[in-house]
Write a structure and sequence with these properties.
19 helices, globular, 4-stranded mixed β-sheet, 538 residues, alpha/beta, 13% strand, 5-stranded mixed β-sheet
């Protein structure tokens, strides 16, 4: 399981930043200086790691590496230990049960030995991390390395005050000193640039973080219903055919907004139309998406609790929902949860009007970012070496240990694929030890034990990536978005649910959009257009 990139830090962090004195410091007086806040910098040079060859050819620059199985002979790609012998402290979340502490955890002890430094992490559950982070911000106890999220107020000012400026260490070819960090594409680094400096390292996820429609192919086959590559009408027809409330089975776990948006050609947040930024919420296509999902709810093809999104992963795994919306990276977790040996996932290719492939909206290239506490150049380099080690890519011996631990105790092999033992699940945190929220390598399409699922994902990527879109405002900073965006989004999301549930008429959207614009969206648009102009000049 991965933590959503916007899940961690909201109003509590903004409050903490204010409490810590950021609202009064000189940098905040520049909070409306769009040019300063979005000042560009030479991004790190991208140098793809020359590792194991993917089992399937990459047909698009955004295509993740696709592997059927783990390489039989992982290569050791580092020499010595990256640490300088001094303890490395840090703050990080986890979406899994918190692992045993280092004194009771052989994996953690071996991790310390391999990095050459005691790793002293303050690990907090994802649900509690915003408050814990806020307390650490106010008390200046974040540690040497800390995971942050881009969704809170005064982020540039916070990073300028509390994070090491990494520009001299990572800009341009300087990053080649850290080859696994250089393995991150420049799109990921754009999310780490604030106020003319590289302020963090990316927790990259790439395409795998994007939402898509997943279907229980085994249930569709059993019911004799074909889905393949649906249009909106096909999707509605299939949902009605598989829904049977008496058998506790519905078409969708949640409203399938991602796939419907792709079919209708919605913007990915903002989009430039006729030389001006337009938000998806302002478009007729967005209102049409609301009307379609409202009708699906009225037809009874969405799980009764689906709009509340109470337990959609369980419904999909257990068969109470034949289709759900989730990320590509969630596929393996669904297979891990499944108890039915016939469990099989397909990923339909959305079709727009005219028979063309729908325009898939890509998620952020990063899950989040992680920063380093200001220190001497020597200490900063040592911490960057540790982060570089954390980012060792798939197929290496370092990756195998980092994700699966020690052979015998933490994992056994099924062919060449590592499978976690009971101790591995606990001590290695289900293969997601929280150092993955301090640095991580590219996220491959690798679903151990399920090579057919790799083919499914690959064929889907091959079809949709040529027309898929990233938000044009990714990597840009708007002060108004920073301070008002969360409130505006919460208000519009609540209305979306009310409209889908039939509690509010569809036309209520028009009045809400007008208020949304006056309450901050127009200011956000203006700031982002300025930032885009700066980006276009460089």
């Amino acid at each position: 399981m991965t933590i959503s990139r916007r899940r961690l830090l909201g109003g509590s962090i903004a409050a903490a930043a204010t409490a810590a004195g950021f609202s009064g410091c000189s940098t905040v007086t520049r909070s409306t200086d769009i040019a300063a806040l979005n000042k560009p910098v030479a991004l790190p040079t991208y140098k793809r790691f020359d590792g194991p060859k993917p089992d399937l050819p990459r047909s698009h620059p955004l295509m993740p590496d696709c592997f059927y199985r783990f390489p039989e002979h992982p290569t050791k790609v580092t020499n010595g230990t990256p640490g300088d012998g001094h303890p490395v402290t840090g703050s990080t979340p986890t979406s899994n049960p918190i692992p045993p502490s280092a004194d009771r955890n052989p994996y953690w002890q071996e991790l310390n030995r391999r990095i050459g430094a005691p790793l002293e992490l303050n690990i907090t559950s994802a649900a509690d991390y915003p408050n814990k982070f806020a307390t650490a911000v106010a008390g200046d106890t974040l540690g040497d390395l800390f995971n942050v999220d881009g969704g809170f107020a005064y982020l540039p000012q916070f990073l300028e005050a509390r994070a090491q400026d990494l520009t001299e260490f990572l800009s341009g070819d300087a990053i080649l000193e850290y080859p696994f960090l250089a393995n991150a594409p420049q799109a990921s680094w754009r999310g780490c640039v604030y106020s003319g400096g590289i302020r963090a390292v990316p927790i990259q996820r790439g395409v795998m973080s994007s939402n898509t429609l997943l279907a229980r192919q085994d249930l569709l086959d059993k019911l004799g219903v074909g889905l393949e590559n649906p249009t909106v009408a096909d999707l509605q027809k299939v949902a009605k055919a598989v829904t049977d409330g008496k058998k506790n089975r519905w078409g969708f776990a949640v409203p399938p907004t991602a796939v419907v948006s792709a079919m209708l050609g919605l913007p990915n947040g903002w989009e430039v139309r006729d030389g001006k930024l337009v938000h998806s919420r302002e478009t007729p296509e967005h209102k049409e998406m609301l009307a379609i999902t409202r009708q699906m709810q009225k037809d009874g093809v969405i799980h009764p609790d689906g709009i509340a999104k109470a337990n959609q992963k369980v419904w999909f795994t257990q068969g109470s929902a034949v289709m759900t919306q989730d990320t590509y990276s969630s596929v393996q977790s669904f297979y891990r949860r499944a108890t039915d040996q016939a469990f099989d996932i397909s990923i339909p290719i959305p079709i727009a009007d005219g028979g063309k492939v729908g325009r898939v909206l890509l998620g952020s290239p990063n899950n989040s970012i992680a920063a380093i506490r200001p220190s001497s150049p020597e200490r900063t380099k040592a911490l960057l070496r540790v982060l570089n080690w954390f980012a060792a890519p798939f197929g290496t011996e370092e990756y195998l240990f980092r994700k699966f631990g020690l052979p015998g105790r933490h994992y056994t092999l099924n062919g060449t694929d590592p499978q976690l033992t009971k101790d591995g699940s606990s001590e290695v945190c289900l293969g997601e030890f929280p150092i993955q929220y301090l640095a991580d390598g590219p996220y491959p399409a690798y679903f151990p034990g399920h090579p057919d699922a790799v083919d499914t994902a690959y064929n889907h990527f091959k079809a949709v990536l040529p027309t898929a879109i990233l938000s044009p405002t990714y990597g840009l900073y708007s002060p108004t978005q920073s301070t008002k965006g969360k409130v505006l989004d919460t208000r519009m999301d609540a209305l979306t649910k009310d409209i889908q549930l039939g509690r509010k008429p569809l036309d209520a959207w028009d009045e809400a959009v007008a208020d949304y614009r006056k309450s901050g969206a127009d200011a956000i648009r203006n700031e982002l257009e300025q930032a885009l102009a700066i980006k276009g000049e460089n």
